[in-house]
Amino acid sequence: MPELKQALRNISLIILDMDGVVYLGNKPMEGAARAVAFLRGSGKKVVFLTNNSESPRSFYVRKLRSMGIAAGEENVITSGQVAADYIRGRDPQAKVFVIGGPGLVEEIRRAALKLVGPEEADYLVVGIDRELTYQKLADGLRALLAGAKFIATNPDRVYPTEKGLLPGAGAIVAALERCSGRKPDVVIGKPSPQIIRFVLRAFGAKPKETAIVGDQIETDVKAGKRVGLLTILVLTGVVKKEDVEKARGTKNFPDFVVDSLEGVIV
Amino acid sequence: MPELKQALRNISLIILDMDGVVYLGNKPMEGAARAVAFLRGSGKKVVFLTNNSESPRSFYVRKLRSMGIAAGEENVITSGQVAADYIRGRDPQAKVFVIGGPGLVEEIRRAALKLVGPEEADYLVVGIDRELTYQKLADGLRALLAGAKFIATNPDRVYPTEKGLLPGAGAIVAALERCSGRKPDVVIGKPSPQIIRFVLRAFGAKPKETAIVGDQIETDVKAGKRVGLLTILVLTGVVKKEDVEKARGTKNFPDFVVDSLEGVIV
User: Fold this and answer.
1) ipTM surpassing 0.85, yes or no?
2) Residues in chain B closer than 8 A to A139 (CB atoms)
3) Pairing with B58, which of A138, A148, B72, B107 sits 20 to 30 Å away (CA)?
4) Are A20 and A236 in contact (CB under 8 A)?
């Protein structure tokens, strides 16, 4: 694809969605490690991005390395990390009540924010929580009724696993929306532009020098378009060839469509 | 109120919402026992109705008796019981997966329906479940993705307790709606007419001979209006005097407003 080659020439930062692009569950995508090496070889910075806030950055670093992809925490961005940064930027003294996984809790701690119970919370942060209980929902409701700001790490309805689809952070957010009568004050993850803007700031990159590679039109491409990035869709995840044809002509149609991440080797 | 006296003359069945009308939490309403005795003395049948499916009918019988109100299971209707009846009426062999409290499980058993895991379920029934876990939501999603019919015992967003508002069945239903992308195929509890129609059938009563007394316009009065009952609003629960004025002229404005259940002694 000479057009893609041409377009990539102006790009200095590549944001790679992980699940469905670099790997599927625990299985690395064919050629993904080579594609990352090629991009780096052509002088681009590569950052690995996930909407999921369950696991800490160190988890993704280990996972990528196990697939032959060199990565450090400085190359990995999670929605939990961006949620913590968002709160810290507004109030470094903020007291935070978390409904979420260990990765989200770790990010709140690393941002030196104070973890508290629902009564004291200035912020309620909600991500995927596989240890969710009714009591946690009740605590979340209490925090919201007491006026805590409502932050969702990501809006994902489901996420795919080897055992099939599991409820995503969006399902937990929906329960809290329904009982509190409130919507999140901010959603961090894609398709929200928040997480993309964070990456641009973190790497000092301009939108027109940045590309995002993802497997979903409604999250990855949409988020990229909102901020003005070059958008590249791969067909190894959620979106299949037939879905692409349906999306043609819509405003979230990607700039380029490649079969897999390997397609960026141009 | 001579008009209320006149209207009640044609009524043979009175449906009383419980929480906010007969009691508030564990506290009986002043005059409630006397009002029930008066209605019965004037030859009317009284049935106690709750949208909540958490507890079995026997729980409400004990609760009412402890407040000096004679009741048997034949006078108490819960949304769990009506959900079980609804399924049984469609398929007496139905296999049911329950997310809900002990009362709902008991009603499914009493209707001789088969309780099964999510993979086998013809029906997913969802009510308030204070033992809710992430795993139960994941199981509910699995049942819905496998095509199980989706039944909500009631749509209540919250319910009041001595310790404040807790998430209602509606919050759990919302989580499952978001992750499955499906809405319930049927909602049993008020403001749905399902539960009211069940009461009418169970007592062989016609709508124009039946009154409903409740503390909420958006559930009790709305459900009553949908089926053509006489609707009486009390001000001892959710709706206060100032809310009544706002609702004046709307299609769900109650036929009568009384300060408390005692107001039916006319």
Assistant:
1) yes
2) none
3) A138
4) yes
The answer to whether the bond into A191 is cis (omega within 30° of 0) is yes
B174 touches chain A (CB under 8 A): yes
Please tell me the distance in Å from B19's CA to the nearest CA on chain A: 18
Work out the number of other CB atoms within 10 angstroms of the CB of residue B58: 13
**pLDDT beneath 70, residues of chain A:** 162
Rounded Cα distance, A111 and A88, in Å: 7
Task: Tell me how far the alpha carbon of residue A87 is from its chain's centroid.
Answer: 17
Residue labelled with tokens 């995002």: A212
* Structural domains of chain A sorted by starting position, each given as residue range(s) with its CATH number in brackets: 2-51+191-264 (3.40.50.1000), 89-187 (3.40.50.1000)
Separation CA A5–CA A21 (nearest Å): 19
> Tokens in use for A176?
């809290």
At CA B21, angle to CA B20 and CA B26, rounded to 5?
60
Calculate the alpha carbon distances from B167 to A59, A206, B130, B131 in Å: 33, 44, 9, 12
Give the closest-approach CA distance of B164 to chain A in angstroms. Answer: 8
β B256-258/B230-234 pair status:
parallel
A164, A167, A173 member nearest B137 (Cβ) = A167
For chain A, the three-class secondary structure string (H helix, E strand, C coil) is CHHHHHHHHCCCEEEEECECCCEECCEECCCHHHHHHHHHHCCCEEEEEECCCCCCHHHHHHHHHHCCCCCCHHHEEEHHHHHHHHHHHHCCCCEEEEECCHHHHHHHHHCCCEECCCCCCCEEEECCCCCCEHHHHHHHHHHHHCCCEEEECCCCCEEEECCEEEECHHHHHHHHHHHHCCCCCEECCCCCCHHHHHHHHHHCCCHHHEEEEECCHHHHHHHHHHHCCEEEEECCCCCCHHHHHHHCCCCCCCCEEECCHHHHCC
* pTM of the predicted model as reported, rounded to 2 decimal places: 0.94
A14-46 pLDDT, tens per residue?
Answer: 999 999 999 988 899 999 999 999 999 999 999
What would the two tokens of residue A54 be? Answer: 């369950």
Helix (H, G, I), strand (E, B) or coil at B175: helix
pLDDT digits (tens, 9 = 90+) for B163-216: 789 999 999 999 999 999 999 999 999 999 999 999 999 999 999 999 999 999
- Chain mean position to CA B82: 9
Record the tokens describing residue B185, joined without a space.
């195929």
Q: What does the alpha-carbon distance between residue B126 and residue B172 come to, in Å, rounded to a whole number?
A: 8
Q: Does B158 lie at the interface with A, CB-CB under 8 angstroms? A: yes
- Cβ of B199: how many Cβ atoms within 10 Å? 19
CB B60 within 8 A of CB B18: yes
Rg (chain A; Cα; Å): 18
Q: A141 vs B133: CB contact, 8 Å cut-off?
A: no
Q: What is the mean pLDDT of residues B131-147?
A: 98
